[in-house]
Design brief:
Distance between the termini: 73 Å
Pfam family, one: Methyltransf_2
Helix content: 40-55%
CATH architecture of the largest domain: 3-Layer(aba) Sandwich
Number of strands: 13
Keywords: Methyltransferase, S-adenosyl-L-methionine, Transferase
Strand content: 5-15%
GO biological process, one term: methylation
Radius of gyration: 25 Å
Bound molecules: S-adenosylmethionine
Largest sheet: 8 strands, mixed
Shape: globular
CATH class of the largest domain: Alpha Beta
Protein name: S-adenosyl-L-methionine-dependent methyltransferase
GO molecular function: O-methyltransferase activity
CATH superfamily of the largest domain: Vaccinia Virus protein VP39
Mean pLDDT: 83
């Protein structure tokens, strides 16, 4: 009934004015850089929408009802449909390859065909952030007015048995999504094709490698002579990303003033040392070691020799060429109360690679060493509360009364208490979700939620103990972790070769290009 009203001419006119006003207001008040980010990375939205439709998720969620369905269960049900559809060759739209071809990560083993739930949760959360689905509880999603409009009305059983009739007799909205988001399928087909063309033992199977037909990992590739322009652009773009943070947020991201005099900060993958420079100026008693790839280290040293030679000459700061997939060079005993700082590093790498980096740091850590991760922390699109295990939900046994997350510094919602706004502030924070999928489709990497970062760090012996947001609504966060026991199952990880890292793993840290003074005098 309410939907019928939207076809009344007077209502239509009013709706148009409201939408126009909202769009114009957003463009007028939002920082231009963020509006540019929306325009630059908004291509993820049709890809996610296409996945929603092609995997019949509106139909699965309709059958689940308003309480929604956990992403693991959505993934399982999609897998069932996928197997049913795959066994029926000859889907009308996708030819013999089946509806899901290339739409997402999936195993070749027909028993294991499924959408990876950890990817699916990010896709559904991006859609929820754009008001196209709802995250009703952590990782539990439900239909809303928009995803409901893409619902074909078929039962899930029908879609498993006769997918070719999905659009018959419908209002055509699901078919429209399938048609106009199809360019994404074209792209994924091309990706699949180039996957076939490329050697099967490709280093990382990262889309970047496939697109550029190179076996070299991105950061090495960037340093080759023919990519000099790209490397230069990358450096400037990193400076541009400073706009994601509140300027100088690193200064408040850690209680630097509580460190003993002359404590060492190792800026791991520190680039040309922009963050270290801020710290050096703000905390004259800190010493800084900036580690990066050899070519970047050279650029950093050149820049610092021009801008602040006294920091290098005095021994307060140094650059070191070091591959973070190799063991950390031993730190002098006096410096084992070090802070390892990783700014915008974890989001560049898939979980297995992040584990390797953090494990090397964990092995180098002393009892008082701290790890500081500075990266986007993706909020959930619902209140960030855990189910209370003592009061399971009557309907599904999984979610009941919620209890607040225990970590100091975490917040249930970024929206004002009691407001109807999305707890992650929806489109105002779209950039982090765009970047998440950009990292995913380029490097098989991702931005992570606090839960994901906590689990990842814990799996290799780091316990996150505090989170600070950069302030003023930024999703950029600083996570402080302390060393704990390394779980037994992770101890063997360092022996396992990482695809694409064979060569660089053998590299040792070359040299400290300037000495970090170990004396206790500030
Ligand atoms: C996204 S940038 C972040 C730079 C810096 N932390 C910042 O916040 O501006 C990632 C950095 O990781 C460095 N990097 C990539 N692979 C590396 C490796 N194997 N060992 C050390 N550094 C690496 C890159 O050269 C680049 O400087």
């Amino acid at each position: 009934m309410a939907e019928m009203l939207t076809t009344h001419p007077a209502v239509l006119a009013a709706v148009n004015q409201i939408v126009a006003a909202c769009g114009q207001l957003c463009a007028s008040v939002q920082r231009p850089f963020l509006t540019v980010c929306d325009a630059a990375m908004g291509y993820h939205l049709p890809a996610c929408l296409r996945l929603l439709e092609a995997a019949h998720i509106p139909e699965i969620l309709r059958e689940a009802g308003p309480r929604g369905l956990h992403v693991n269960e959505i993934s399982r049900r999609v897998g069932q449909l996928l197997r049913a559809n795959r066994s029926r060759k000859g889907n009308p739209e996708d030819g013999e390859e089946g509806r899901y071809e290339g739409a997402t990560a999936e195993s070749e083993d027909s028993q294991e065909l499924r959408l990876d739930p950890s990817l699916l949760s990010h896709v559904l959360r991006l859609l929820a952030t754009h008001h196209i689905t709802r995250e009703v509880r952590p990782d539990v999603f439900a239909n809303n007015r928009i995803s409901g409009a893409i619902d074909s009305g078929r039962t899930v059983t029908e879609l498993g048995q006769t997918p070719e009739t999905k659009y018959d007799g419908t209002n055509g909205i699901a078919a429209f999504v399938g048609l106009w988001c199809a360019s994404d399928i074209g792209a994924s087909r091309r990706r699949e094709k180039s996957r076939e063309d490329t050697a099967a033992d490709h280093p990382m199977h990262a889309p970047f490698n496939l697109a550029f037909r190179t076996r070299v990992p991105y950061f090495e590739w960037l340093e080759t002579p023919e990519n000099a322009g790209r490397l230069k652009r990358f450096g400037r773009a990193m400076t541009g990303t400073g706009s994601w943070e509140v300027p100088g947020a690193i200064v408040g991201g850690f209680p630097w003033h509580t460190l003993p005099p002359s404590s060492l900060v190792v800026d791991v993958g520190g680039g040309i040392g922009s963050t270290s420079l801020l710290l050096a100026h703000a905390f004259p008693r800190l010493r800084l070691l900036i580690q990066d790839r050899p070519q970047v280290v050279k650029m950093g040293e050149t820049a610092w020799k021009e801008r602040c030679p006294e920091l290098l000459e005095s021994g307060r700061a140094a650059f070191q060429s070091h591959n973070f997939f190799a063991p950390q060079p031993p730190l002098p005993d006096a410096m084992r109360d070090t802070v390892f700082l990783l700014r915008v590093i974890t989001h560049d790498w898939p979980d297995a690679y992040v584990k390797r980096i953090l494990l090397h740091l964990r092995q180098a850590a002393g009892p008082n060493t701290k790890l500081l991760l500075a990266d986007y922390v993706l909020p959930l699109a619902c209140l960030d509360e855990d189910p209370d295990p003592d009061s399971p939900c009557q309907d599904c046994g999984m979610e009941g009364k919620m209890k607040a997350p225990p970590l100091p510094g975490t917040v249930r919602s970024l929206a004002p208490e009691g407001s109807p706004l999305l707890p992650n502030l929806g489109k105002a924070n779209a950039n982090a979700y765009w970047l998440d999928l950009t990292m995913r489709v380029t490097f098989n990497a991702q931005e992570r939620t606090l839960r994901e970062l906590t689990a990842l760090a814990q799996s290799v012996g780091w316990k996150i103990v505090r989170v600070t947001r950069a302030g003023s609504g930024s999703l950029f966060g600083h996570l402080i972790a302390e060393p704990v026991d390394i779980p037994a199952e992770s101890l063997g990880l360092l022996e396992t070769p990482l695809p694409g890292m064979l060569q660089t793993n053998k590299e040792q840290s070359k040299h400290t290009t300037a000495r970090v003074d170990t004396c206790d005098q500030p």
